Amino acid sequence: MNTLIIISVLPIVILYLGLYKLKKALLPVTVIGLLIALGFAFADWGKEAAPIFNGMMQFNNFSIAFSALTILSTILILLLSKDYFERISDHVAEYYAVMLFALAGIIVMLSYHNLTMLFIGIEIMSVSLYILAGIKKNDVASNEASLKYFLMGAFSTGFLLFGITLVYGASGSFDLSDIRAWILMNPAHLDPLFYTGVLLMIVGLCFKVGAAPFHFWTPDVYEGSPTLITAFMSTVVKTAGFAAFLRLFSTCFNPLSAYWAPTLLIITMLTLFIGNITALYQHSFKRMLAFSSISHAGYLMFAIVALSASSANSVFVYATAYSIASIIAFAVLILVRQQAGSDNFDSFNGLAKKNPFLALTLTIAMLSLAGIPLTAGFIGKFFMFTGALMQYQVALVIIAVVNAIISIYYYFKVIVAMYFNAAEPSEVPVPACFTFVLGLSALATIVIGVYPVLISGLI
Amino acid sequence: MTVIILLLLPLLGALVTLLFKGANAKTVALLFGLAEFAVAATFLSQFIPDATTQFGVDFEWIASAGVHFKAGIDGISMVMVLLTTLLVPIIILSTFKHDYKNPAVFYALILFMQAGLLLVFTALDGFLFYVGWEAALIPIYFICALWGGGDRIRINIKFFIYTFAGSLFMLLGLIYLYTQNPAHNYDIQAFYHLHLSAYKQSFVFWAFFLAFAIKMPLFPFHTWQPDTYTESPTGGTMMLSGIMLKMGIYGVIRWLIPVSPAAFAQWGPVAIVLAVIGIVYASLIAFNQRDGKRLIAYSSIAHVGLIAAGIFAWDIQGIQGALIQSLNHGINIVGLFFVMDIISRRLNTRDIDQMGGIAKLAPQFAIMFLIIVLGTAALPLTNGFIGEFLLLNGIYQYNIFLSAVAGLTIIFCAVYMLRMYKKIMQGETNALTAVFTDITGSEKIVLGIICTLIIVIGVYPQCILHLSEASVHHLIEQVNQNKLTSVK
Q1: How far is B121 from chain A (nearest CA, A)?
Q2: Whole-angstrom Cα distance, residue B146 to residue A415?
Q3: Dist. CA A415–CA A422, nearest whole Å
Q4: Considering only CA atoms, which of B483, B470, B478 is closest in space to residue B77?
Q5: Is the CB of residue B74 less than 8 Å from the CB of residue B471?
Q6: What is Dmax (Cα atoms) for chain A?
Q7: Among A28, A403, B98, B342, which lies 20 to 30 A Cα-Cα from B451?
Q8: How many CB atoms lie within 10 A of CB B111?
Q9: pLDDT reported for residue B486
Q10: Contact in structure between A444 and A321 (CB atoms under 8 Å)
Q11: How far apart are the C-alpha atoms of B485 and B488, rounded to whole Å?
Q12: How far is B7 from chain A (nearest CA, A)?
């Protein structure tokens, strides 16, 4: 609870700092505030608190672990933002503030125990993101991204809200435990309205996490937004979306898995194929990352399709590995883009000669995303595959393997460009904070890959 | 002493090598390769050749997933460990005449790969085996793609995707066995005693088969191999052909057949026929090769086909033959690729049709090359003979006709090997070959060691055979028992 309060108050403080033109203090205050929030989150660890505020929120280990992950990812992204926002906007304080507001919405999404709170959390996050996507006011692509995201997002929120209403109409409650109790009480004849409601909620949530066939907004929004915001959306926001998705289905709708699992199974397969095959054809690294994030959404869906006690753990490990690797990829992209001026794979040519450190960290990130052993990404895939095979989803796992093979091709494309393609020698300057974030993330990827027990037993 | 030392020393070597610049990196890497061989030799001297697993290590790695770090050495592993630790210093030494760019990285990758290979050969836990399997793949990809020639990027991405596809299916097989294991762990002994139905075993069999058949490679999964071998730097080709393909052979003996004995009883004939087809097919293609490196690559497919057929025959001679022949094939093919490297470095071509008359110019080289060719062609008193004899004997007891077809490999091999020797070494010296100089320094040492090994193993093969005999006996008995209980 304290975490949420701090993260809600922090952006207001930031706005005042902005008002008094204390630009230098923005980043330190934000990071320190987030670290305090993180400390409060850990203080509640293991208490398994009951729902509070008339069952609106519940801060259990699940929400604490995911809060910690999202807060840490946000800190890493903010560390990359030194000097970045100044270049694209005059109103730097708003930037930090809006990002923190989004994070506050995310904490609500991770801790809800009532469908209204789920909706409010998603809205707080989404509205902030619409602003962030369009923060480059004079850039057409950024404006387009913002408008597209807003229209699509509003549309999907409509679906979600409609679904919540129908579920409420059938079961008479917004409370997760009450709905679950109601399902268990009337197992034989549930109202068709209820099923429709669940289906509509699936549609709404799939929109938010970018699963096919509701993924159409993703590539354009990711490409048009400022790269740091894209990094934020594809890591923190995606993690939060999946955590909310999983929380709903594992605590509330799990008795009905026979009904919704086939739907999600098809969505998962589609997501994997569409994400991977489209990523194959991209020339832009940023757009490739957007499509690869769709395919990773497919792997993350495994945990929901093959729902079990270990699902939360699998999602947590996978999301951690994916977030860290994506942050590396976007950070290197920012630097390369500054130097080469474009997002294309060609910009990476000869990076290994220009800057071996950047090339090495990006290679580790790509290997992790591709799921090669001794990196965190492999551990994530390993847990996902194990969970799915435990539930006898053999066809799904085989399709996932085929997709993992396809993904090698485009992840290696950038490695090939960096190490094997020649380019004119030039310098790629790396600011100290980038070195710190990249080094830390690459190290974490390897450490988790070698000794996953550090994070795998948490939830 | 535990196997941990064996696994960590090359990793340490890789890190230390990275610190050195220029030619020093070679020497440091060689020293670590020799130190690793010394460690293996100590293991060998303390090794008791019975069926037990020795020098074992076992601790919990990922508790929630039932993964243990469990490794050890029995007779079968011992032969493979010997092969790896023996060949790596030879391979490092054989690259001394090359000036690779970024030598520190090159040699560090070789040592890193050695750690992965040794992990594969000693792992007794499915997850650990898979980790080693992939850990050996990443460095060789970079070795081949960074220091290779020709169209190396396309070729190596094909190689990588091929082998990665195979290993992912193997991973599924391993996870499937885990889900069927009531103890919920990846222990190989637990996997041996699962007693699944033949239908369930079939999935596991084919998942594993795919991985191992691609790695060896067996017909029809061999299409990545000739290109990759040809375009890799010689050191990389030697690592691939000398050691890495033995991962597939070892995998079949240790994992594929023992974990799915009933499916093996059902599908074994298909596998052995594929292996025999590969022998004939690759030999026929080898006849027509003008590129020396490519010829050796195809000859390797034929030889590995014979080894695989011997394993799938699954009797004591077949497997003993496969093990000793793995070692021999490693030694011989490293020798052959090194010979080809010496020639192509002096003449700047690998086209054997343009060569001739080198024997007169380089008598020492000619003798050593001849010994290697004879070893490859399995002449009695060379190392190849005992291996192929045991293998054919094993296949003969399985099926006479298959044995007759597989036996063609000896004739074919003698034909294309001796013809290659004739074209390169004999006849008239021409304008191209007139500049050829005899071998010197490190070349002499490498070829000398290889020739000595060929003759020593050829005369006294028992020194290798006795290591694995008890383990092989034990394994075969175990599998035959499980085969019966599974069918019930």
Answers
A1: 17
A2: 11
A3: 13
A4: B470
A5: yes
A6: 70
A7: B98
A8: 26
A9: 60
A10: no
A11: 6
A12: 15
DSSP B353-377: GG---HHHH-HHHHHHHHHHHHHHT
CA distance B165 to chain A (A): 6
Angstrom distance (rounded) from CA B295 to CA A74: 56
Structure tokens at A208: 């938010």
Range(s) of the domain holding residue B327:
3-487
Q: Do B65 and A456 touch (CB under 8 A)?
A: yes
Do the chains contact at A397 and B165, CB–CB below 8 Å?
no
Closest CA to A336 of A321, A352, A325: A352
For residue A338 the two structure tokens come to 């500054």
- In the three-class reduction of DSSP (H, G, I as helix; E, B as strand; rest coil), residue A20 is classed as coil
What is the C-alpha separation between A97 and A103, in angstroms, rounded? 10
> Is the bond leading into A213 cis (omega within 30 degrees of zero)?
yes
Contact A374 B135 (CB under 8 A): yes
Distance CA A5, CA B289 (A): 75
A408 pLDDT more than 50: yes
Q: Give the C-alpha separation, A456 to A459, whole Å.
A: 8
Rounded Cα–Cα distance for residues B290 and B315 (Å): 38
User: Mean per-residue pLDDT for A281-286?
Assistant: 91
Nearest to B347 by CA among B257, B259, B433: B433
Cβ distance B160 to A412 under 8 Å? yes
> CA–CA separation, B473 vs B60, rounded Å?
30
DSSP 8-state secondary structure symbol assigned to residue A50: P
| Structure-token match 């700047």, residue found | B348
Residue A282's SS3 state is coil
- The total of other beta-carbon atoms located within 10 Å of residue B150's CB is 11
Q: CA-CA distance, B210 to B419, in Å (whole number)?
A: 34
Please answer yes or no on whether B161 and A409 come within 8 Å at the CB atom: yes
Global pTM value: 0.93
What lies within 8 Å, CB to CB, of A20 at 6+ separation is: none
Note whether B324 and B465 are within 8 A (CB): yes
* Helix (H) or strand (E) segment spanning residue B240: none
Closest alpha carbon within chain A to B148 = A420
What are the chain A neighbours of B179 within 8 Å (beta carbons)?
386, 389-390
Rg (CA), chain A: 21
Q: For the segment A350-407, what is each residue's pLDDT rounded down to a tens digit?
A: 888 888 899 999 999 999 999 998 999 999 999 999 999 988 888 899 999 999 999 9
The phi and psi torsions of B125 (rounded to 5 degrees) equal -135, 135
Q: Tell me the backbone φ, ψ of residue A114, rounded to 5 degrees.
A: -150, 135
Any idea which residue has 């999602």 for tokens?
A: A315
B164–A412 C-beta distance less than 8 A: no
Partner-chain residue, chosen from B62, B152, B157, that has the shortest CB–CB distance to A452: B62
Give the burial class of A21: count Cβ atoms within 10 A of its Cβ; 0-12 exposed, 13-18 middle, 19 or more buried: exposed
Tokens of B10: 């090359």
H or E stretch covering B54? strand B54-62
Inter-residue contact B366 to B359 (CB < 8 Å): yes
Shortest distance, CA A405 to any CA of chain B (angstroms): 6
- pLDDT grade for B488, boundaries at 50, 70 and 90: very low
DSSP annotation of A346? G
Determine the pLDDT at residue A292.
92
The radius of gyration of chain B's CA atoms, rounded to the nearest angstrom, is 21
Sorted by where each begins, the domain ranges of chain A are 2-456
Number of domains in chain B: 1
What are the structure tokens assigned to B4, written together?
């941990």
Q: How far is CA A388 from the centre of its chain?
A: 21
Q: What is the pLDDT of residues A223-256, one digit of tens each?
A: 999 899 999 999 999 999 999 999 999 988 888 8
Q: Which of A196, A17, A381 is nearest to B65 (CA)?
A: A381
List the single residue in B65, B130, B164 with the smallest CB-CB distance to A386: B65
Identify the band that residue B198 occupies on the pLDDT scale cut at 50, 70 and 90: confident
